Amino acid sequence: MESRGSVPARPLSYEGVWRFTAPALEVAVPQARHAVRDLLARQGVPVADDVVQGLLLIVSELVTNTVRHAALLSPEVAVEVAIGAHRVRVSVEDNHPYRPKALETDAARTGGRGLLLVREITREAGGICDVEHTASGGKIIWAELPLVPQLQGGAAAL
């Protein structure tokens, strides 16, 4: 909302939304991670290194899940990065209708902890994450982190 006589705020030079797609193959995991890292650097986003490392791990986990569990119904994975003045949001979209749930820690399992890890990284940074269904029947899993980590934990929904 603007007050009379005020000048509308302009977006900061690093703000914006970027989206890219890749085939749902293992090679998409490092490609997505590098694309996000390079985007943050290219845009000059003033983001803490801890947040960058958390985002890259989140992207790796989410794209890996799509490649491993959704590729049959979703041969392409879409990654979106939305950068605001104080927050950055990464989203991974696929066309598979199954809504995953974060698993609890089980020392006997060697896998299946990706969403648990995403939830914990997000919470520790003071961010939020969730899963949404798309109009086409697929899903978007996203995590939004502050550019500077918060001291208190946020509410991660996964």
Please, how many helices?
A: 3
Name the overall outline: globular
Order of helices and strands: EHHEEHEE
Report the sheet with the most strands, covering strand number, pairing sense and barrel closure.
Answer: 5 strands, antiparallel
Strand content: 15-25%
- The structural class is alpha+beta
Percent helix range: 25-40%
* Cα-to-Cα separation, first versus last residue: 32 Å
Biggest sheet, spatial arrangement of strands: 1-2-3-5-4
Contiguous runs where pLDDT drops below 50 for at least 5 residues: none
Give the total of beta strands: 5
Global Rg: 16 Å
Mean pLDDT across the residues is 86
3D architecture notes:
Helix content is 31%, strand content 24%. It has 158 residues and is an alpha+beta fold. The model has no long low-confidence stretch (mean pLDDT 86). A five-stranded antiparallel β-sheet has the order 1-2-3-5-4, with helices on one face.
Write the layout of secondary structure elements.
Elements: E1 16-23, H1 28-43, H2 49-69, E2 76-83, E3 87-94, H3 114-125, E4 128-133, E5 139-146
Antiparallel strand pairs: 1-2, 2-3, 3-5, 4-5
Helix pairs in contact: 1-2, 2-3
Task: Give a nutshell description of this structure.
By secondary structure, this protein is an alpha+beta fold.
